[in-house]
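Q: Could you fold this chain for me?
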Amino acid sequence: MAKRTSEVHAYIFIKQHLSDIGWVAKNPLRHKDGQLYTQGECLEDSRICEMLKQTKPENIVKLSETEYYVIEAKANRNQIEQALEEAQDDYAKVINKSRHIKAKIVSGIAGNESDGYIIKSRFLVGSKFKPVISNGKELTSLVSPKIAKYLLDNNTNVIEELPIDEKFFLETAEKINVILHNGAIPATDRGRVMSALILCLVDDTPPNLNASPTVLITDINTRVNAVLQREGKPEFYNYIKIALPTTLENHVKFKGALVKTIQELNNLNIRSAMNSGTDVLGSFYEVFLQYGNWAKEIGIVLTPRHITSFAAEILDITAKDIVFDPTCGTGGFLVSAFDYVKQNSNAAEINNFKLNNIFGIEQEASVVALAIVNMIFRGDGKNNIKEANCFHHNLTLTRKDGVNTAKYISSEEENIPPVTKVLMNPPFALKTDVEYKFVNHAIKQMQKNGLLFAVLPTAQLLARGKYKDWRLEMLQENTLLGVITLPSDVFYGANAGTNTIGIIVRRGIPHDKKQKVLWLRAIHDGFVKRKGKRLKPKPPIIERDMLVEYKDLIRSFIKNQDTKIKNVSEECKVCQIDYTDKQLELVPESYLDEFTPTYEAIKDGIEGLVRETAGYLLTSIKQDVSITASAKKYHAPHNIRNFMLIDICNVERKYAPYLNEVLSDEKRVPYVTTTEMTNGISIKCDTDANFVKNTVTVSLDGTCGTTFYQFEDYIAGEKTAVLTLLGELNMPDECKAPFLFYIAYMIRHKSWRYHFGRKLSEERLRKFEIPLPINNKEKIDYYYIKNLVENCYGWSVIEGNL
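A: Sure. Below is the predicted structure, expressed as structure tokens.
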């Protein structure tokens, strides 16, 4: 009984860990899908009971009808060998005497919550139980379903490539963030602590987790220093080493967080993952950095992995390329370049590439340290990552061991540009440097015909003044090959609200006005927003990923601009730059063709607007009215023709300052702003209206292109335009309201061209072309529009308020 009491705190850990790695932690005799017998439950299985009699291990996992996995626990970490021997000799070997069932996998687990747990596993090969080895390292977690299947299917204790559960890795990254937070580890120190803990686990002998907080941290730091010395980066020790909190009462809490974090890393088989050919460890590390809320506090804005990988693939990085990122941060682009080369090169090419062809600069020393660790995880590539201000250094071509490479020199020295590929995402919105200056500096390091991919705020390709001047200068010396609008929330949680563009530039060849450019609006990348994060949806749900869809096409176009590319409205187009555009906008939204909606699509779109408006009226005015759909029939239009918006409507703006709500006046006036809720009305106030009812408001900012029909006299905010029908249209009064709803929908249909980075100006609105139905007399068919709108569900509510 005493034995069981001393080990009881391991039960919860074992059950939770088994559940985390994919087992169904329920009794198989009571649950159809159950796989776990806890303590004495295994003796309820007649075949196990027949062999074990009254003896029983901590847990037995049912792998199949004939295969079982035995787990035995001990209370102290120094009892790990005893736990393993008992699982093997006292239980598994006894079960294996059965003619019906076998137990070829065993695990011993020893420890407790405060000191952490050690786990060792063995697999029966022939007549001997041998340690389970993955990627040359002994397993440090319990055996997962994938690993168990591999062992049994191949009848071996050696796993060449560890089956990785990516979801488990990413969930653990988030869990560790919470552990470090609860351990009173300052937000700005967590990246350093994580780096130190992973590095301290590189060697075979683990740190002594039973030691005092002071001794444990000294042990961890000694191991970190040894790894950095071995990797040729000892100067970064001071940025990675960890220190105890200044207050004694936090020492135990701090140590507890370290122990729990190391436990989570061991549960991932982190040492095996380090030796793995997969990049899940890198993904884990970057998820930890990205979703730690502290990241922004130290200036880390991670470029998402799928963006860095996309860039490396479309530029087709090879082992012969010299790659540079002048603002490398934690090394995301360099990692992706290295990973892509590893997939497509032999061992000698990879070795030369990692030693001589990867260069990165980052100004913040603590962030450089994270980049160094990031590259160590991949096996190398860290040698030429430098802590510096990129503007103070040039790269120049040199030779080393008979091959081309580069070296850093002062920016005051003349350089022979060595770089063939640049991948970069310059820091956004710095007070002293605008993003294009980083691009200029990167181009200066490039050979003629070198390729650059840069992520920039959309404003750099849109705004006037110095930004337009930069665009003109860039085109005078270089060729623009492609511009890609990235998803609006690609930096969700970091630079939220910043619309971004990816540009592809060929260095050193002035842009020919006949040169075609690939314009792509890749607004879907396979991710969805969930609880403050952008994640891949769980199967069977699959979100569209336009970066994957167009990746091969972009790569082909970069190599050959005569590549035939199908024009897809609102999505993709190849055409020349419009030099007649006074603003010289270089964004896809300025060049892509517009999708002309079908009659059915127009009807559906207008009905959506009608329903939305009816819902607003019912909730705001609280009318007791029934909602009906008209049964009127309407004829098809004779044809469709585009009309300029200014030929059918006045476009007006009157300045109105922000107004505070005043509750004392019963005759308050709606104040229409850029909000997309409540019919555009943000508040009501007691100032006189400056626009009359039965007009349409258009948001020029915020959710650009959002339109609303206004039922009361109102005040229009500064960033709101108002549409009123021109009197010379000779339109029947009964057609006016339906006509305005039609116009409102058609403007919404064009809103894809505008966003926070490319706002809808009054000037742009005036240039809108509106497709309108015309009759056989070539006149606008007002009655077709009237019948179309009045057939919409909810029009009965609107009609009562006109």
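A (continued): DSSP finds 24 helices and 31 strands in the chain.
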